Amino acid sequence: MTQQPASADPFAQTDPFELAQRAAQALRERTGVETHEIALTLGSGWGGAADLLGETVAEIPAPEIPGFSKPALEGHVGTLRSIRLADGRHALVIGARTHYYEGRGVRAVVHGVRTAAAAGASTMVLTNGCGGLNPDWAPGTPVLISDHLNLTGRSPLEGATFQDLTDLYSSRLRDLARTVDPSLPEGVYAQFPGPHYETPAEVRMAGVLGADLVGMSTALEAIAARHAGLEVLGLSLVTNLAAGIQQTPLSHQEVVEAGQAAGPRIAELLARIAGEIR
Predict the structure, then answer these.
(1) What is the mean pLDDT of the chain?
(2) Quick one: which residues bind phosphate (predicted)?
(3) Where do the domains of the chain lie, and which CATH numbers do they carry?
(4) Using one digit for the tens of pLDDT, what is the confidence trace for 142-199?
(5) Pick the catalytic residue: 198, 202, 221, 231?
(6) Residue 185 backbone phi and psi in degrees, to 5
(7) What is the pTM of this model?
(8) Is 18 a catalytic residue?
(9) Are 252 and 31 in contact (CB under 8 A)?
(10) Binding site residues, as ranges?
(11) Is the bond into 66 cis (omega within 30 degrees of 0)?
């Protein structure tokens, strides 16, 4: 992975929590909103939900907020958006996820969730597009994340920071999501470092370890979110069957197309769930 020079990396010499506070203050100044009660990171396929949540107060290009940069991945909108919900609360929609494989370091990967906490959020909704191990989950299937396997070999926590992760993906929020759609399945998500797709053997290994879904995001963010005091809801969109389960080669274009096809349906689902979160 290519590393940025230290001089170009805002995380190299700055405390990451201080940088998150600076980002949150910039959001307050740019949006005029003092507190964002809920935050959502919209991964591949989920971007359309932002248009259904409520009234957009402000939309800011990510690089204009401290610590954020333009997304490296197609399917991410590259903005931070403040939205007023129907009940008057505000949602912060993060369309500028940094992936671990970009080489910017774990601090950059979790900057979005730390900024959400600094902006006043109590709930973090993390979404992604992923590969599925269950052949019954066709591409386009949304799945609640019940737990994860962090296979990156890294943690966003530094030093003697011992965080309990027993109910990391809130059972309360999963139950709430099922009041919106009782048919939602749930499964364990495994985060691999990427950017290459998993081999069939790695997918079999993940299955033996207990994974139902494989991807390249979310787990590190969820750990940091819990450490920051956020209640976490995770949702995956199965964009393809994982290597060795489907017989055709994997491609990013396939992921993008599956996300686009499922977009309107899952956007409505996510907007309805977000509207119920208290």
Answers:
(1) 91
(2) 44, 76, 97-99, 129, 217
(3) 16-276 (3.40.50.1580)
(4) 999 999 999 999 999 999 999 999 999 999 999 999 999 999 999 999 999 999 999 9
(5) 198
(6) -80, 170
(7) 0.93
(8) no
(9) no
(10) 44, 76, 97-99, 129, 198, 217, 240
(11) no
**Distance between CA atoms of 95 and 8, rounded to whole angstroms?**
22
Say how far apart CA 9 and CA 220 lie, in whole Å. 19
Q: Is a pLDDT exceeding 80 seen at residue 79?
A: yes
* Amino acid at site 27: L
The separation between CA 80 and the C-alpha centre of its own chain, rounded to angstroms, equals 14
- Report the C-alpha gap between 138 and 98 in whole angstroms: 27
Question: Based on the number of CB atoms within 10 Å of its own CB, is 209 exposed (0-12), middle (13-18) or buried (19 or more)?
Answer: exposed
Tell me how long the chain is: 278
* Binding site listing for a purine D-ribonucleoside: 198, 240
The pair of structure tokens assigned to 206 is 């993940």
Residue 107's pLDDT band, with cuts at 50, 70 and 90, is: very high
Residue 71 phi/psi, 5° resolution?
A: -60, 145
